[in-house]
Amino acid sequence: MASEPAPTNDHTQDQQDQGKAPAPSAAHDSAHGQRQGPEAARLQGHWLLAKLGKRVLRPGGIELTRQLLGATDLRPGRRIVELGPGVGRTAEILLDSIPASYRGVDPNPEGREQVAAVLEGHPQAEYVVADAASTGLPTGQTDLVVGEAMLTMQSEDAKRAIASEAARLLAPGGQYAIHELALRSDRDEAELEAARKHLSRIIKVGARPLTQEAWCALLEETGLEIVWTGTAPMRLLEPRRLIADEGLLGAFRFFRAVRRTPGARDRIRAMRQAFRAQGELLTAVAIVARKPAPSSEAGEPSDGAEH
Hints:
Layout: H1 10-17, H2 26-31, H3 45-51, H4 61-70, E1 79-83, H5 89-96, E2 101-105, H6 112-119, E3 125-128, E4 142-148, H7 156-169, E5 170-183, H8 189-203, E6 210-211, H9 212-221, E7 225-233, H10 239-260, H11 264-277, E8 282-290
Parallel strand pairs: 1-2, 1-4, 2-3, 4-5, 5-6
Antiparallel strand pairs: 5-8, 7-8
């Protein structure tokens, strides 16, 4: 799930501005004397879905994730960093490529046990507790950075900080692959802002999606070159998408958990209605950007130059 601070508190906003994926709001509600009603009514949307058993938490579904990774140079021996691995569904695909190394980076505990289970049996894989904007990982030693449904939650400054960190990590020729929520560029800003606020209220986490053009510009500002883009409808909670993402058995377990969890049915219905209502304004976008090789050193002729 990608997701603005109208419904978030100051602590969550601070986390976003620092490039952190905000933690579930239940504890903060408690601190402010707002723990009322079932937990399902208070959890941030993506963590509610995870609690109910949904593993694909990306706006374009598993198919757009596969298209995104298929557009990268994903092959055995790659050095991979995933920012915000969620519950580890994309990590499974990345590890199937037999990378030389995999690092999943996230400062929050939510989803960590699920990711640890995915990483088990892969000695070249590790979980790094760090902010996406300041990973502490070495410069220029990563072939592929992947980040899905996490930049949308961030402030404009944090978006730039995370994209810059990804660019710093990449070796020349390395790629940054993102999968985020996008807004249509042919609507006026007031309409788009209303859509952002409505979505934020429903999913209970700040949603700051950009247009596809603005997402591309964000990556280009870090010196990266756009090499591929793809889109998919935002149908995260539609039955057909749920089955495609989770399989028949997984979808059945999800719907059973929705029925059995107090407050979940009303919350899921509200989220689905919000996605449908904003369907003409929202889409999922995936982008692959490449870090160009440095220019020839001073005094050496560049390609095509006369000798």
